[in-house]
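User: For my dataset I need records formatted as: sequence, then structure tokens, nothing else. Please produce one.
Assistant:
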Amino acid sequence: MGRRFIILVILSLLLICVAPLTPHSAADDPPVVSTATPEGRLAVFDDVWETIQQRYYDPTHNGIDWQAKRNAFRPAAAKANNAYELYDVMRQMIASLKDAHTRVYSPDEKFDWWNPRYVTVGLTIREIEGTAVVVQVESGSAAARTDIRPGDAIASVDGVPVAEFISTRLANFGSQVDSPRRYRTIASIFDGQPGTSVKIGWTTRDGRSKSATLPRYWTQRHLGFSTQRKDKVAILRIDAFTQSVALEFSKSLPDVLDGAHSIVLDLRYNGGGDAEAMADVASLFLDDGINLGKFADRSGASFELETYSKRLWRVPQVARIKLPLVVLTSESTSSAAEIMVAALQMKGRARVIGAGTCGCVLAIRNRHPLPDGGILDVSEFDYRTAAGLRLEGVGIKPDKTITLRRSDIYSRRDPALEIAKHVLNGR
């Protein structure tokens, strides 16, 4: 088995995946069935169920009666009116695993790990102070032409009070809902079929109630990195780990770090990526031969990651970085990013500041093509740190936890970054 794996989580709601660097795509195989017929829909459904049954990393399926799930959802799959409804049924079945890595994509989604494409209404939502709050409005979107602003609280979705709407969504996952599932559910409250619309009610900063109907549409996110300087603190933000990002990031460091006395590594928006690329970046901050943890499948087959600075042979001028380091994390910090944070924290190389991470660290061997041209990702590997700790469903607790408030968003404050700079400046 190859040593190059991808561990990636995709926004809009951070969906985590792992696969070979050049995964087999359903686009490589022409569809052999049509979901326009009940027989075709059941062929796709059965392929999804059986593949998970045979390949899932945990033969107990996280304690779920997987046969019972087949019996419960198969009739609904046969009765689906179109491909969108069929895939919605399969996603509901898969959701019972409480595993953000195992995911199914319809042929129309044309999923690209490095330039993730997803349906949105132009708003990014997260839970702040116990309610769903707008944290970003996409420039040029219909939402941007309304009065909704970052910091405003969502009050209703299609006329349903938002608390009730979220509770109904969460009820599909049973009585025990973990924090990552709640986070993803709130982030996806506007999910739906592209071309449709949703009526949103919200409350402004001064308590006024407003509403608007917004269209759902496809958008795409381009993953990369950015750098800036605040006094003598270098702020490095990495959105994902890819071979090209690791290389360009490493090339930029000599200039970015010239004259800097410390570093803030911002991984709050990092959903993972190529595990080897992550190891390359980790090798910039850690000694060679540091164990970054182990992946193992249901049969016991396993592989380990470790730092090795010579992998960055194409950037010979980059030496190991010894400047003081703070890492910023959030609920969006996922997968390969969590592996890196865990290693830096365990080795005492960095202080971790922000919110607890996603707890989404499983791995996919390869992408499974479905008979209608769709794609199924199945978690085939579990992960444990070098100390034997399992991060899935647990995540990483920061050394200093920061709670974001609506007032911070309205005033455009970044309290985690502010505290990181205070820590690095010895205050």
